[in-house]
Amino acid sequence: MVSKEYLIDLLKENEVFLEGDFTLASGKKSNYYVNMKKAITDPEILSTISKLITEKISGENVDKVAGPALGAVPIATAVSLESKLPLLMIRKEKKGYGTSKLIEGELNQDDNVIVVEDVSTTGGSLLKAINAIQDNGGKVVRAFVVVDRQEGAIEEFEKAGITLEPLITVNEFFD
């Protein structure tokens, strides 16, 4: 059976948390880094994440699972496979070629969508993905992040009227 504690153990075993001097995607400086790219390329970690999220949405009226490129796409794919829900991939920006879509996958008007992310600091990239879904007719019903750095993302989501649900927080990891 999967659990939050098992996920924490896997992340520790795989040395996903690094100490040193880092600049985060948000531009903030940090004395630690959560290397989720390493985590989401490990099949056992990815499977555990997908099972934990699927358990949380079991029995709910969810039509699609979405993740912003790049880090969340493997997570969203794993959740899609585990939950049997269709996948949406949210680009950072529209491409100037091909279909020029911001959202890959079929988003229908009023689809109930869950969004997933690997790590949140301020929540900016995930909020942009949520806005893209909402601007294209979808309803974001839940938002999940594997690791919340506890640096304001949850509060930013509350301001937007959405609850961000971390699987684990940095404090839980370091306990």
What this model shows, in words?
Pathway: Pyrimidine metabolism; UMP biosynthesis via de novo pathway; UMP from orotate: step 1/2. It holds the Pfam family Pribosyltran. It comes from Methanobrevibacter thaueri. By secondary structure, the protein is α/β, with parallel strands linked by helices. It has a single domain, classed as Rossmann fold (3-Layer(aba) Sandwich). It is 37% helix and 28% strand. The chain has 7 helices and 8 strands; from the N terminus they run αββααβαβββαβαβα. It has a 6-stranded mixed beta sheet, sandwiched between helices. The protein is globular, with a radius of gyration of 16 Å. 38% of the residues are buried.
Topology:
Elements: H1 4-13, E1 17-23, E2 29-34, H2 36-39, H3 43-57, E3 64-68, H4 72-83, E4 87-90, E5 103-104, E6 112-120, H5 124-135, E7 139-148, H6 153-159, E8 164-169, H7 170-174
Helix pairs in contact: 1-3, 3-4
Binding site for orotate: 121, 149
Keywords: Glycosyltransferase, Magnesium, Pyrimidine biosynthesis, Transferase
Protein name: Orotate phosphoribosyltransferase
